[in-house]
Amino acid sequence: MILQATTITLGLSAMTAGILYILTSFKTRKQTFYPLLLALPLFTIGFCMRLTGTQETIDLGYYLTDTSYLYINILFTAALILGQKKYWKTP
Hints:
By secondary structure, the chain is mostly helical. The protein has helices spanning 2-25, 34-50, 55-87.
């Protein structure tokens, strides 16, 4: 369990560093993508909790992984709606 959690945490760190590196190569502000990067730790913590043997912790882990998935979908949908509102706004 400890080895699995450590491996997942190192994977999270590598993914976050890779995403931040890609964003800096495009001359993009990193602060713009902080809400998207919030979902990575939530998903990772939830997945680590799902590896334990306790049923309550497993249920909480499923809740965190599903919440991070819904968070990204809601954020993406809100950005699409706001973009469409700005595009179709009449001057």
